[in-house]
Amino acid sequence: MASRTALITSVLLLLLVVPSSSSYVKFDLHGNIYPGGYIYVSMKIGDQVYNLDVDTGSILTWLQCDVPNCQGPCKTWPQQQPLYKLQNDKRVPSMDPLCVELLQHPGQPGHTCEYNIAYTDGQSDGLLIRDKLTLPIARNAQHTIAFGCGYNQHNFKPGQTLPVDGILGLGRGSTVNLAFQLKKENVIKKDVISHCISSKGGGFLFIGDYKLPNVEWVAMDRNANHGHYSPAVLGELCFKGKWISEKPMKVLFDSGSTYTYFDWQPYKATVDEVIGSLHKSLTKVPDNYFKLCWKGTKKFRSVDDVKPLFNPIFLIFRHLGYPSRKLSHY
């Protein structure tokens, strides 16, 4: 899925969608980055509770689902919950405004809304549908929302049972995302989301107007690419007291990304500095996924075991007094 972020600092980010005012919905976050690899919320959709991978880098919320008489390919990853069973009266027409927004196409009379969405490590094919979402507010109030019925997944860890049943799309700039739909339903008045992800696992997610005191707030760029959140100021990389990025960089925050990605120059500079300062106890070993991998004298059971062996990288926003972030989990 859009991948999961290894860059975790327990900082609360205010991710601006569109201005407005008032209430919020709070969700507990479950899971962890390591060793689980997923941060997710539990939501009741229809008559079943599902776990959704929190993704601020994509706009569509979707569940894996069972489509009657599916005309293949119809492939889903193994999950802990039963698949959502599609009922034909839940389908959204292709000329519905949300489908037109999602596909950027006017649609055709008599057709249902079908989509395919590409992620960094896979693709999902599905149908746009509507059903009841039960929210943890006001005696578990129910509201009808549009979301995806993903009946065919490509390259999403086949054969492995995952703790998540789909994706919670919170990307900015679209009427399809959950925050905008909840605003339209008058559940929230101010279209913002905020989340705090603990390095120990878990955390919380707020959709709506929630202001936590004593928190470092970083304004988001309203002109960032569709679906993405990006600070209004540029970031720079610092390693052992010196700048290693040639110029300030545009940074995207993506809760659905497993790893932190750099362009070629900052990537090469980071690799050179890390290799040049390796702890003597580390030995290079081959790995099927990573080009660079080291092992220690004993098994690492958590990221905390590795911290003393690597120097931290700092992502610093020098302009307008914004704070730095220590990228200790790289």
Automatic annotation (TrEMBL):
The active site is at 55, 254. The keyword Translocase does not apply. SUPFAM superfamilies: Acid proteases (SSF50630). Keywords: Signal. It comes from the Eukaryota. The keyword NADP does not apply. Residues 39-330 form the Peptidase A1 domain. Transmembrane segments: none annotated. Gene3D superfamilies: Acid Proteases. InterPro entries: Aspartic_peptidase_A1, Aspartic_peptidase_AS, PEPTIDASE_A1, Peptidase_aspartic_dom_sf, TAXi_N. Pfam families: TAXi_N (PF14543). Residues 1-22 form the signal peptide. Belongs to the peptidase A1 family. This is Peptidase A1 domain-containing protein.
